[in-house]
Specification:
By secondary structure, the protein is an alpha/beta fold. 28% of the residues lie in helices and 25% in strands. Helix 5 links the parallel strand 4 and strand 5. Helix 1 packs across helix 3 (43-50), helix 7 packs parallel to helix 8 and helix 11 packs across helix 12.
Length: 364
Amino acid sequence: MPRPIQATVHSAALQHNLARARQAAPDALVWAVVKANAYGHGIERAYDALRAADGFALLDLAEAERVRALGWRGPILLLEGVFEPRDLELCSRLGLWHAVHCDEQIDWLAAHKTQVPHRVFLKMNSGMNRLGFPPDRYRAAWARLNALTQVDEISFMTHFSDADGPRGTAHQMAVFRQATQDLPGERSVCNSAATLRQGSDPAVRGDWVRAGILMYGSAPDHPERTAADWDLQPAMTLATRLIGVQHLQAGDTVGYGSRFTADGPLTIGIAACGYADGYPRHADTGTPVLVNGVRTRLVGRVSMDMVTVDLTGVPDAGVGSEVTLWGRAASGTVLPIDDVARAAGTVGYELMCAVAPRVPFSAG
């Protein structure tokens, strides 16, 4: 039989989370963000559940081609725009909308030969200091785009750096509003955190919200709030089974480097999942896991193909018992991916995206 590890993508959860984005930002259009292969869930696996969105937002042309191949005829937005002039040819052929964040992209558009003008989203660097025109050059960039016959409608976007924290969005919204004042076009400013926390405010939500991590059941402002607080459902479950059991005595150690020492009799289970499956190697003793739906903990260091788990409190566990690394157990118990990520010193985004190709996926 195949190795028992498996990832399951829950279509009903994706649909639910999309509905939550709409509920949080009434009257706004919703981009379903499917970059990084739908945050590791798989564009093809997520598509049917997310096709009720108003558009798909992603990064690269290959992913855009995949969405079009699935039959999507609505808007697709390249969040980082094009990377070289010839990319514009595919934008024309596939009808892609794309961000414009630098002078070079405007130059490429000016030289592009097309019979169908492009829809672009002019990006402002309002404080994130990644991509975008600074506020004092934003209107000049708009004027250049507006003068091009290659450009049809111009929309406006920025990205929040602190929508999930105490600093908030007010400082960025102030410069964005000032620079875009009286310019015609749709606005897109809200990421997942801003959508959930401020989407009810029409002055913030704008015309389009970009639903990313919330779509996949992770809280963008964890640990301040949990996925359950936001009524989000886990869209991925990573599960395996116990393939061995060991009975320890006081002083026995577990795993490479003997990082864990038993302080008394202890039964541990060995589960078929390791860092070669995408589970974080830096997860350490105490990282939560479910065995037969009962919450317990990792003990010792994560190996390439195995982890070891404390079976205290799960006396009926044995070889073949279900182990849920994150997501929903067969019993219905949920282990939030954010809890696992926090214990491992990372974020749920990374865990989703890191599931290895050798892990089989199924729909659930």
